[in-house]
Amino acid sequence: MRIVLLGAPGSGKGTQAQKLISEYGIPQISTGDLLRAAVSAGSELGQKAKAAMDAGQLVSDDIVLGMIEERLQQADTEAGFILDGYPRNLSQAASLDALLDKAGKPLQAALLIDVDFEVLMKRLTGRLSCKNCGAVFNRYTSPPAVENTCDKCQNELYHRADDNEETIGKRLNTYTQETAPLIEFFREQGKLLSVQGVGEIDDITAAVKAELKKIA
């Protein structure tokens, strides 16, 4: 099973990716993780990526694709993979298609976790986290029993400074302009699958698995 996850920030891609890893025994390939690992290892691509980041530049698509290509050569991708965080625009999607076709591992589906922006805004601006145990709450949808206090360890919760309407709005606008066109790109290829990312996590997972049966 070779899929890419699509969805706006806060749609729950990361949560569902973890569920799919457990269910299907295939790895998640996150470009963020690949970059961090390559920089840490000091590989040739990692050194190029670090040079770009140190200069305040975006890491080029060629470098990211090179990292994906190297990752696909590892044995655990033989049964499939879950791509997360790439592609982010139409140009990257075309380059990724060419790379995967060359590797004999073309994408079978793009899975969209669809959530209304109003819901995403509440999810992201209402997020409360515990520095002690890492538990996450939401002042709108899943508040702690005692205000600003973690249910699990009773430590104080904090709200990230960048979880505000202005910053979140910019992230969502970037997604709309650059990443949302991928939905139509994969629809035209006949590879688009879609679920509503609202409700209980296990219910969303069940809907995801039902969609993935179409390519099993």
Please explain how this structure is put together.
There is one protein chain. This protein is an alpha/beta fold. Helices cover about 50% and strands about 15% of the residues. It has a 5-stranded parallel sheet with strand order 2-3-1-4-8, with helices on both faces. It has a 3-stranded antiparallel sheet with strand order 6-5-7. Helix 2 (about 30-40) packs across helix 3 and helix 6 crosses helix 7 (about 165-180). The relative contact order is 0.17.
Give the arrangement of secondary structure elements.
Elements: E1 2-6, H1 13-24, E2 28-30, H2 31-41, H3 44-54, H4 61-72, E3 81-84, H5 90-102, E4 109-114, H6 117-125, E5 127-130, E6 136-138, E7 157-158, H7 165-179, H8 181-188, E8 192-196, H9 201-212
Order of helices and strands: EHEHHHEHEHEEEHHEH
Side by side, the strands of the main sheet go: 2-3-1-4-8
* Beta fraction: 5-15%
Radius of gyration: 18 Å
Oligomer: single chain
- Looking at the structure, what is the overall shape? globular
Secondary-structure-derived class: alpha/beta
Q: Let me know the average pLDDT.
A: 92
Q: State the helicity in percent bands.
A: 40-55%
The N- to C-terminal Cα distance equals 7 Å
Largest sheet: 5 strands, parallel
Number of strands: 8
Total number of helices: 9
Which runs of at least 5 residues are low in confidence (pLDDT < 50)?
A: none
